[in-house]
Design a protein that fits this description.
146 residues, Nucleoside Triphosphate Pyrophosphohydrolase
Length: 146
């Protein structure tokens, strides 16, 4: 299970992070939910670890849930949860401290830019307005791949 967060600025741009590995695609802040950890706790932890920020994310901020079918034999299906995070201002972004072992950069991106910079599966989770009335559920199937 993974948990990520959509963080915006006052212009409705998305905060993207870049992994500290060559040619890795831009990502949303977040990561794997540890054993015994809730997705909400995981996304808060990832905010502290990756950005050095204590993000005020609550249960009702759940934005999207996606079930992803395994793509190869021996792999397991997984769930990806996406939370709508806080709006950050300049004072907030001045405090961003990247986890240098995992990330080498962050930036603001318009939704169109984000769609072209993120992995297509991640970009597809960002549907509708960024302040949802309720969570969106999606399934990603890979018919005939197993």
């Amino acid at each position: 299970m993974t948990a990520a967060v959509l963080i915006t600025d006052p212009r409705d741009h998305l905060l993207l992070v870049h992994p500290a590995k060559p040619d890795g695609p831009w990502q949303l802040p977040g990561g794997i939910v540890d054993q015994g950890e809730s997705p909400l706790d995981a996304v808060r932890r990832e905010g502290r670890e990756e950005l050095g920020l204590d993000l005020d994310i609550q249960e009702h901020d759940l934005f999207a849930i996606e079930w992803l079918q395994a793509t190869r034999p021996g792999r397991r299906d997984r769930m990806a949860l996406l939370f709508a995070g806080p709006e950050l201002y300049r004072d907030d972004t001045d405090r961003i401290t990247l986890q240098r072992e995992e990330l080498d950069a962050w930036r603001w991106a318009t939704r169109a830019e984000a769609e072209s910079m993120l992995h297509p599966a991640i970009a597809a989770r960002i549907v509708g307005p960024l302040q949802p009335d309720g969570a969106v559920y999606r399934e990603t199937r890979h018919e005939g791949t197993l």
